[in-house]
């Protein structure tokens, strides 16, 4: 039995004191209305109305139950309204993640845009590598993220793929007089990269791209924190790859001693897109994906990157072919 619909019939008849008027109010014929009220009486084991050929009068038991019926209907409507808000991304909890390499300005722009779209939605934001995001998306412990390509996108839906060109971080003294740096000019230096476990396919692709451009590092060092990476650049003669928007810009605490320069000669790039499990792209997920895409384009200077041919998954990594 559809209890809510049967209660609506009970309340309508009680308020109209007439089956015909109650049926017209509910937009249904009178016989089905009478049948629903009778079934409700049988289910409850209580007579709700006294019926004669001239009138319908609510019983004492019906009067006692009428307030409860109205309360159930009110709560039902409140529940359905809440469900609509969740469906439309206006309330609830969204679990999202961003990679560590996004600048503070990009993260702030994303959050401001998303907040404007869905002020009533609680956002649980995490800083996670691509590998960590893929694990959590697969386990449904994450609703949406921004991942690096190439990666295994099996079971995922993607937003637009955006490209951020990588430059190089150098000691200021080394970069003096250089407006740009050819990749081969970095030969003999160590390269600082994020740990391979964070994004294995991207790690391999960056090294491959550098080698094709004429730069094979003497050694690869690992680091992610901005201060740690800059310390390695200053003290060990190593270089680090970095997009322009994440380059150091402050003048204090020695940050001016490390500078960013664009690369020439087949420079590597970072490719990003929003990602979420297939079939789970509700309004809130779509709003986050749109906010992330907008922030990457406006605050991080990312540009659309559409491959001429589709992605192909290889045993160790995934390449744009």
Provide an overview of this structure:
- This protein is an alpha/beta fold.
- It has helices at residues 3-16, 19-26, 30-44, 60-87, 104-117, 130-138, 172-175, 200-212, 226-236, 283-298, and strands at 49-51, 56-58, 92-98, 121-127, 144-149, 156-158, 162-171, 181-182, 191-193, 220-222, 239-243, 258-264, 269-277, 303-304, 312-313, 318-319.
- The chain has two domains: 3-87, Orthogonal Bundle (Arc Repressor Mutant, subunit A); 92-321, D-Maltodextrin-Binding Protein, domain 2 (3-Layer(aba) Sandwich), CATH 3.40.190.
- The strands form three sheets. Strands 3, 4, 5, 6, 7, 8, 9, 10, 11, 12, 13 and 14 form a twelve-stranded mixed sheet that branches. Strands 1-2 form a two-stranded antiparallel sheet.
- Helix 1 (3-16) packs across helix 3, helix 1 crosses helix 4 (60-87) and helix 5 packs antiparallel against helix 10.
- The chain is rod-shaped.
- Mean pLDDT is 87; it is low at 251-255 and 308-321.
Provide tags for this entry.
Arc Repressor Mutant, subunit A, 12-stranded mixed beta sheet, alpha/beta, 23% strand, 10 helices, 321 residues, rod-shaped, D-Maltodextrin-Binding Protein, domain 2, disordered C terminus
Output the number of helix runs: 10
Number of domains: 2
The major β-sheet equals: 12 strands, mixed
Q: Quick one: overall form?
A: rod-shaped
Q: Just name the CATH architecture of the largest domain.
A: 3-Layer(aba) Sandwich
Termini separation: 59 Å
